[in-house]
Amino acid sequence: MHISVLLKESTEGLALAEGKTVFEGTVGLGGHSRALCEMIGKSGFFIGTDADQESLAIAEERLKDLPCKKLFACDNFRNIDAVLAKAGVEKVDAILLDIGLSNRQLDVVPRGFSFMRDEPLLMTFRSEGDGLTAREIVNEWAEESIADIIYGYGEERFARRIAKGIVEARKDKPIETSGQLAEIVKKCVPKFGFSKINPATKTFQALRIAVNDELGALREGIAKGFEHLAPEGRMAIISFHSLEDRIVKEFFRQKANEGVATLVTKKPIVPSDSEVKENPKSRSSKLRILIKK
Ligand SMILES: C[S@@+](CC[C@H](N)C(=O)[O-])C[C@H]1O[C@@H](n2cnc3c(N)ncnc32)[C@H](O)[C@@H]1O
């Protein structure tokens, strides 16, 4: 089960009304989509993408009872141009991105996202097709490049040691599973008795970001998305770590400085204590909203 994060704050922050057109780039299991579809009513148009075909199919089924016009596309939200062109839409009234991965991907889908289980080391959002996988990175990339992504995308201070450990281990046999990788990382990181997080957390985050080019997709998606926002249209982005939030913050500030947007959130909205208590995974989320002039 995925519990939607900052649901009320993000959907209400988009100030949608009956008949509006909305683009949601990260439909996931459709939690935010339901609220959005309810707001736009039967004359509204909901356009939703997710890179993960299986999640999208579940969401489509769950949203069947809602009367608005809907178009679901299994695509990366960085391709918003092509998706809107297919929908015959030039401008949208709102855009929502709730980036990262869903609990279903973390807890159920056997693609190696979790260091708690032993699964093929893929880490792709997309459920099918080819392209870069975490397996390829850890088995084929140079030690230096592995260290760079673990440091750059995981902000892991032991990145060099971990990369060295990975390259040593793969000389023995290929690293095929998430369990194997988690064990290798554990051996490379000094034990801190008090640390609450698993030693593989940052390495797994870094690989996932690299495999899916998450930061590149975010940059491209918000820039293209902004071009497709109608005047007075709103964009809401929920991010989960500082690298993502920095991209959103800088883009929004730039648009405000150029005088083409107003910031609804000068500081990001974070989940309430009760939301964090109910859903601890929401604790690092941040929501930023802007209005196009
Ligand atoms: C946090 S979940 C969204 C959950 C959803 N808001 C809900 O309430 O059910 C993020 C989703 O975004 C998708 N995703 C992440 N990056 C993407 C991208 N660049 N393009 C398309 N989908 C992406 C993932 O596959 C995942 O299903």
TrEMBL record:
Tree of life domain: Bacteria
GO molecular function: rRNA (cytosine-N4-)-methyltransferase activity
Reactions catalysed, as given in the entry: cytidine(1402) in 16S rRNA + S-adenosyl-L-methionine = N(4)-methylcytidine(1402) in 16S rRNA + S-adenosyl-L-homocysteine + H(+)
Principal cellular location given in the protein's record: cytoplasm
Gene Ontology CC annotations of this record: cytoplasm
EC numbers for this chain: 2.1.1.199
Cellular location(s): Cytoplasm
A Pfam match: Methyltransf_5
GO biological process, any: rRNA base methylation
Residues bound to S-adenosyl-L-methionine: G30, G31, H32, D50, F77, D98, Q105
Classification via InterPro entries: RsmH (IPR002903), SAM-dep_MeTrfase_MraW_recog (IPR023397), SAM-dependent_MTases_sf (IPR029063)
Keywords in alphabetical order: Cytoplasm, Methyltransferase, rRNA processing, S-adenosyl-L-methionine, Transferase
Stored Gene3D superfamilies: Putative methyltransferase TM0872, insert domain, Vaccinia Virus protein VP39
Job of this protein: Specifically methylates the N4 position of cytidine in position 1402 (C1402) of 16S rRNA.
Family, per entry: Belongs to the methyltransferase superfamily. RsmH family.
Protein name listed in UniProt: Ribosomal RNA small subunit methyltransferase H
Gene name, Swiss-Prot/TrEMBL: rsmH
